[in-house]
Amino acid sequence: MSEAPQPSVQEFEYKAEMKQLLHLIIHSLYTHPEVFLRELISNASDALNKVRFMQVRGLPVHQPEAELRITIDIDEKNHNLSIEDSGIGMSREDLIERIGTVASSGTLEFLSRSKAEEQTFDGGELIGKFGVGFYSVFMVTDEVTIETRSADPDGKGWRWKSQGEGRFTIEEIEKKDRGTRIFFKLKEDAHDLASDYRVKDLIKKYSNFVDFPIFIGKDRVNSVAALWQRKKEDLAKEELDEFYKFVAGDFREPMDSLSLHIEGRVNFKALVFVPSEPPIGYFDPREEKSLHLYVNRVFIQDDCKELVPEYLRFLKGVVDTEDLPLNVSREVTQSSPVTTRISEIITGRVLGMLEDWAKTDAGKYNEFFRRFGNYLKLGIGSDFTQRDRIVELLRFETSKTEEGGFTSFRDYLTAMGEEQKEIYYITGESRAAVEKNPNLEYFRKNSIEVIFLTGPVDLFTVTTLPEYDGKKIVSIEAADIDIAGDKDKDEESDTALKGREAKDILARCKEILGDRVEDVIESKRLVDSVATLVVGTSGMDAQMERMMKMMDSNFTSGKKILEVNLRHPLMKNLARINEADHDDPVLAQAVEQMYEGALLIESNLQNPADFVRRAMQFMEQATRS
Ligand code: ADP
Predict the structure, then answer these.
(1) Cβ 25 vs Cβ 120: under 8 Å
(2) pLDDT tens string 454-472
(3) Computed over its alpha carbons, how large is the radius of gyration of the chain?
(4) At residue 93, does pLDDT exceed 80?
(5) Is the separation of the CB atoms in 417 and 465 below 8 Å?
(6) What is the pLDDT of residue 613?
């Protein structure tokens, strides 16, 4: 497709968020300005991959015979640098859309957050996360020129020029060769980078695994090494770490790696890494990266989502197989039995590795789970073949672990008393919130362990697990809970209201609350608190209910049961008032207050105004002299 004629030099302005981000990059604390070189080389390598891919698929390209390479020229005297590739090049539109805008969806949010916190960063973080690698060049120069010609046989030459902040210009030029050349003069404080020796060193450090030859002048610098072709025993930790940083675009070291050489029904080699931290765009599908796919050492796809199931998407690395054709398309990889089989094998091996950590190095495993546990939990609902293994790998905080400590279902079962028949959990926003939940009182007093489910992922995964090793997993809010082993039931229940007195006050409470509750019953689980709401025959757990309301404003929950503590002095007082005059307005007000207080504790009180007004009335009565 031929491009429309344009006026000779056109000026453009960057979008607002781009300007902000550029400003941050240029002026942020930047401990490694030299990473610009890695970024430009990585872009060149991507561009070369793309043109190779076009050729593999038989698409026409300009200069099909051109060697695929990256050439760096350094003018030590004048401090000029140029990086050139014979890759896919850019059209005028590419220059405007790809170079002039921020790709990442999380950028704006991140910008406002970092502004609010007055943060300083290692700029490497900004650049890696927001797909603005090219702009790192403005840390070492004040003006950049790009000359490029697209691989499209009808493409033209274009020159793009910018001083970073604010604006850029584009003009048409004569350019014979396919690909892109980027050149600039180094700023004074970056003059040391205008050295063959320095640049060679940096390429070794950052770009050694780039799949194309890199030349400085006439000398080839990098050693292209398909590390995954070698056995893990033959790989030094430094090599693995560097390779990880290269494939994952991370600047930290990985937590661990797994090397696979599989032959049989499916043949592939893989080098898979567990990063040290989850990505910033946690669970945001647009931010999600995955394994890279190679076919016979030829790079085919970035982030091939079919190579691991969703719950292992945090893994980074490469898979290289002989069993797919070179010109495989995204559609084919999406439905190929080869990718499915590869994914199954990788999944099995990765779970095996995690099981091994859990067994031999609990500290390491817990660290892993703290960071990636939310991913793993997704597997419970989505991978039924591995579900049992994933369940064993789950870890929880409980009423008996310290903050940050972990227990597994297995440990829970081993530790629980003979008489306990079920596994208990409580849901809530945070550990601090669930610890204050009155429903926990009974369990704490009787030293029964309760699993704390405090993350949103828990609600949609763990709460759907019906049982573990033959024991039902139940919410302590479930009304029909079969409470086990109340140690001092007898002496305690002696002090509770009983008989007709108890029956009358429960009935009166129900009368006052009417349709709002399914029933009002005596609580066996409360110790210090006076009332709590529990799940009725049609209701759901409080936290679940809140989530449903957040997702659907029309959601109406089933009715709850109000449980009251008949040992509590307040209930005894109310029973006394009820005996004397069951229409006493104080009784009705107190019951309302008790009910709304229970709603408030589970963060489900819609309108706190009445609650507060009543509280004021009671205080007024109490302080009347
Ligand atoms: P990223 O590489 O993370 O996408 P960059 O800001 O480095 O972000 O580059 C933006 C886009 O500009 C790239 O995705 C690519 O489309 C294009 N680009 C950059 N450098 C080149 C190059 N040397 N050849 C062809 N296209 C390039």
Answers:
(1) no
(2) 887 887 777 778 899 999 9
(3) 32
(4) yes
(5) no
(6) 93
> Using an 8 Å Cβ cutoff, are 570 and 564 in contact?
no
**Could you tell me if the CB of 86 is within 6 A of ligand 1?**
no
Q: Is the CB of 133 under 6 A from ligand 1?
A: yes
Nearest CA to ligand 1 atom 21: 43
Q: Which atom of ligand 1 is nearest to the CA of 42?
A: 2
- Give the mutation target among 39, 43, 46, 170 for probing the ligand 1 site: most ligand atoms within 8 A of CB: 43
HSE-up (13 A, CA, CB side) for residue 275: 23
Give strand pairing partners of 82: 73, 183
Whether residue 374 is predicted with pLDDT greater than 70 in this model: the reply is yes
Closest C-alpha residue for ligand 1 atom 9: 134
Domains and CATH numbers, the chain: 9-220 (3.30.565.10), 227-362 (3.30.230.80), 489-622 (1.20.120.790)
Distance from the alpha carbon of residue 521 to the mean position of ligand 1, in angstroms: 66
What is the rounded CA–CA span in Å between residue 509 and residue 574? Answer: 10
H-helix or E-strand spanning residue 321: strand 316-321
What average pLDDT does range 130-149 have in this prediction? Answer: 86
Q: How far is CA 295 from CA 60, 298, 333, in A?
A: 21, 5, 12
Average pLDDT taken over every residue of the chain: 86
Half-sphere exposure of 424 (CA within 13 A, CB side): 27
Atom of ligand 1 nearest to the CA of 130: 3
